[in-house]
């Protein structure tokens, strides 16, 4: 339920996308994070302006604006042409506004959802990205950026403490400033029967001024996918085995299909200066399903494992079963103000469930049903790639 439009103005291209679907789905499943009485709060969408030759020397300018239900993001990127064998430079300016739910959100309904904790992040960053020439399997990006993070209440006022009176910035002021040097490397390999991917991010806070944050933060993501088939599909029953396949009396062979096993391991840690909003949040879609965002815990360190088996039924429909688990490795108490302990988060959690993915010309639909360790059930519904 949306609209998409592309407009060409000379050499520039403008993409406009307005979508009402997410609002409808969210109103059925998610608790309200703030008062959204404005008519514009019912609309989410994006605006993208691209110019491929800004000053006549193949300079590229990208301007994008994305608006969600409770967040927004503005990005301006300028790229100058350089030879392919040297690092590609991109000047980036970005401003984002979003509710800080992962650390300061309040778990409700047996940790299956997270409500607003009255803290929102306004982040401004300006800097330079350097994309190293990629090899066949490795790619690398280095960036250095100035960041200014300001904490806001739900009504837009600057705040320095949360609802319990604990500081929410590292500097003690209404904002934190830092210069961050970031290195990200990625390895990817794929064959007909498997794929592997490994990503490592390292961030270093540089003390340009005495009150600016000094820290070292790293995060890794390791993913592995294996095709387990062939599988044998039987009437009224599906069995999966490697040959030799056991005989099934009275069963009718329908088709050969493949099962895909996907495993993902995510971890990270931070040392040095730290504000609570920099903690690793565990729980939610993309982390441990069955829990609200950050409802498992938030700490200086984290470890999250996801295992999912996908079963294609046909070209348009596939099912999946999954197991998610995560822990803060006992580091929740090391976050300033200890927000996880004050909110009663367990620090570790397990979620299991199953789902369906349906691909149609109108869009991609996904439904996941998850149960957490407190026997609380959660339904996730997503719609992507909507047709105009």
Textual characterization of the structure:
It comes from Hibiscus syriacus (Rose of Sharon). This is Outer membrane OMP85 family protein isoform 2. InterPro entries: Bac_surfAg_D15, D15-like. The protein is built from two helices and 24 strands. With 388 residues, the protein is mainly beta. It has a single domain, classed as membrane protein fhac: a member of the omp85/tpsb transporter family (Porin, Beta Barrel). The strands form four sheets. It has a 17-stranded antiparallel beta sheet. About 11% of the residues have low confidence.
Concise overview:
By secondary structure, this protein is mostly beta strands. 3% of the residues lie in helices and 55% in strands. It has a 17-stranded antiparallel β-sheet. A three-stranded antiparallel β-sheet has the order 15-14-16, with no helix packed on it.
What's the arrangement of secondary structure elements?
Layout lengths: L1 E8 L2 E8 L1 H9 L14 E8 L8 E8 L4 E8 L8 E12 L6 E3 L4 E3 L4 E12 L6 E15 L22 E16 L3 E13 L8 E13 L3 E4 L2 E3 L13 E5 L2 E13 L7 E3 L14 E3 L1 E12 L4 E11 L11 H4 L5 E13 L2 E10 L4 E8 L4
Antiparallel strand pairs: 1-2, 2-3, 3-4, 4-5, 5-6, 6-9, 7-8, 9-10, 10-11, 11-12, 12-13, 13-17, 14-15, 14-16, 17-20, 18-19, 20-21, 21-22, 22-23, 23-24
